[in-house]
């Protein structure tokens, strides 16, 4: 049997290696199906490119839903529901009005995706493969949280412009008008006053996005998919990726929604503070627009993982299988004959 706790592992192997090392993760040195070695600069550059495509394209595609969601959060008395929000927006601004904020959305979330996916896998480089397996859930959480911290600094200015364009009729119709106007009125702080609430929204979201996705993939291959991943075609593996991504997305939306409501109101109102907005919204107000966000984030997360994994398939980047106990660890614990 495998050890079911770290205590048992320590007893079985008292001379185990320290948690962190500078040793590269073990990868097959000769593999015709891999084009770039794990840990190389080209590998991380392509991971970042995959992040740009997965986040930039998907967030821009759902701008109409995001616009209605933001308006529902900042003015629930007027918009009341998703369908009412779409109806009022089209009536007031026409069909083109649904695309408001597309430019800062594309730029901001492309930058966020570059940092998020590009930084995420770097922490795996500094751990031995045995510890990567044993601590995998903690590693998913730590790597995703640290990556998102920097990703949000890149996202914050464009997120502030997006929300101002979408929720303040007449303020500015595009990014070229909005950014200079915000800077003239409030200075550089206008673009970063929402970064702390953004961290409150995005870091829990990303931790759930990566950890839930990775463990869901693991469980799907273990209990649902009738054959090992190695025997699945690339298209079958991408289907599993999409399903796991959608499941992760639902949980992402729930854990991050209150902070998302605060960010929407904060970036709409000049001179507001996060605590002031939170008091104004109250316990019920922070959950307005949750249904719209579950639909949006569930679809977004599934598509993001699908696109990111497709980039890895196209460039033949290493795509690790669901975690299994490494042979070296099995030998240390005497689990092999």
From TrEMBL:
Keyword vocabulary terms for this entry: Membrane, Mitochondrion, Mitochondrion inner membrane, Repeat, Transit peptide, Transmembrane, Transmembrane helix, Transport
Stored InterPro entries: MCP_dom_sf (IPR023395), MCP_transmembrane (IPR018108), SLC25A3/Pic2/Mir1-like (IPR044677)
Transmembrane segments: 43-63, 238-259, 290-308
Solcar repeat residues: 42-126, 135-219, 236-314
GO MF terms, alphabetically ordered: phosphate transmembrane transporter activity
Signal peptide stretch: none
Subcellular localization: Mitochondrion inner membrane
GO CC annotation terms, alphabetical: mitochondrial inner membrane
Swiss-Prot/TrEMBL catalytic activity: phosphate(in) + H(+)(in) = phosphate(out) + H(+)(out)
Membrane topology classification: Multi-pass membrane protein
Biological process, per Gene Ontology: mitochondrial phosphate ion transmembrane transport
Keyword Transport: yes
Keyword field contains Cell division: no
Role: Inorganic ion transporter that transports phosphate or copper ions across the mitochondrial inner membrane into the matrix compartment. Mediates proton-coupled symport of phosphate ions necessary for mitochondrial oxidative phosphorylation of ADP to ATP. Transports copper ions probably in the form of anionic copper(I) complexes to maintain mitochondrial matrix copper pool and to supply copper for cytochrome C oxidase complex assembly. May also play a role in regulation of the mitochondrial permeability transition pore (mPTP).
Similarity section: Belongs to the mitochondrial carrier (TC 2.A.29) family.
Oligomeric and partner information: Interacts with PPIF; the interaction is impaired by CsA.
The name this protein goes by in its record: Solute carrier family 25 member 3
Gene: SLC25A3
């Amino acid at each position: 049997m495998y050890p079911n706790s770290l205590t048992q592992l320590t007893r079985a192997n008292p001379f185990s290696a320290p948690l962190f090392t500078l040793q590269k993760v073990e990868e097959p040195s000769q593999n015709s199906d891999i084009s770039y070695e794990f840990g190389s600069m080209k590998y991380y550059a392509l991971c970042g490119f995959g992040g740009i495509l997965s986040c930039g394209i998907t967030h821009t595609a759902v701008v109409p839903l995001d616009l209605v969601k933001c308006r529902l959060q900042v003015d629930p008395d007027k918009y009341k529901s998703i369908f009412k929000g779409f109806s009022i927006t089209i009536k007031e601004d026409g069909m083109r009005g649904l695309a408001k904020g597309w430019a800062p959305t594309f730029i901001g979330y492309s930058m966020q995706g570059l940092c998020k996916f590009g930084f995420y896998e770097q922490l795996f480089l500094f751990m031995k493969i045995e510890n990567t397996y044993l601590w995998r859930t903690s590693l998913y959480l730590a790597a995703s949280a640290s990556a998102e911290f920097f990703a949000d600094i890149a996202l914050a200015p464009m997120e502030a412009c997006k929300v101002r364009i979408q929720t303040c009729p007449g303020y500015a119709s595009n990014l070229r008008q909005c950014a200079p106007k915000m800077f003239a009125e409030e200075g550089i702080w206008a673009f970063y006053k929402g970064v702390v609430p953004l961290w409150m929204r995005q870091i829990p979201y990303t931790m759930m996005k990566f950890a839930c996705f990775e463990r869901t993939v693991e469980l799907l291959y273990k209990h649902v998919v009738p054959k090992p991943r190695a025997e699945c075609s690339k298209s079958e593996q991408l289907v599993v990726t999409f399903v796991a991504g959608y499941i992760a997305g639902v949980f992402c939306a729930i854990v991050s929604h209150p902070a998302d409501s605060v960010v929407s109101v904060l970036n709409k109102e000049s001179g507001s503070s996060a605590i002031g907005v939170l008091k104004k919204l109250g316990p019920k107000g922070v959950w307005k627009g949750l249904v719209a966000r579950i639909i949006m984030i569930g679809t977004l997360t599934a598509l993001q993982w699908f696109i990111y994994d497709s980039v890895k398939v196209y460039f033949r980047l290493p795509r690790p299988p669901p975690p299994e106990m490494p042979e070296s660890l099995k030998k240390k614990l005497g689990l092999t004959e």
